[in-house]
Specification:
With 162 residues, this protein is of the alpha/beta class. The protein has five helices and six strands; from the N terminus they run βαβαββαβαβα. The radius of gyration is 15 Å and the shape is globular. 34% of the residues are buried.
Amino acid sequence: MNKVAVIYYSLEGHTQFVAEKISERLGCPVIRIRLKKEFSTVNTFFKFFWAGKSSVFRETPALADQSLDLEAYATIILATPVWAGNLSSPVRSFLSKHRLEKKRVFLVATNSGGSSERCFATMRTLLPTGSVAREIGFINISEETYPIHRKQLEDFCDDITT
């Protein structure tokens, strides 16, 4: 049981981009956290309003029924966008449903500016003590900015395999 999986939630696509890059580099599966009712992406203002509100008020939206056999993985890379300075509510829901006991966990956060530290601090409180091996944050990562972040992401992946 030394398999690795990348588990992520993405609203805008930045976290999905990072999750897929990590998956490609490590040759491991990538699993998207899905909600029963996704946030609307029709209106940009309301999308950010509802997503930010759900994060600020520590909401745990219902997850879609997904059959996840996490027992098959010893290492989990958990990726989230930073919403209103904290982790996304879908990842909060995932962590409240899956304790990730006896797993080595690597945390990834994407944001459009600012620090990911509060997001990581919250995630650490929702995970078993001592399970977090490393954290990494990316600001404004996309296909266009990937060359700037490539080395940082490759070093992160190398830490996972050692």
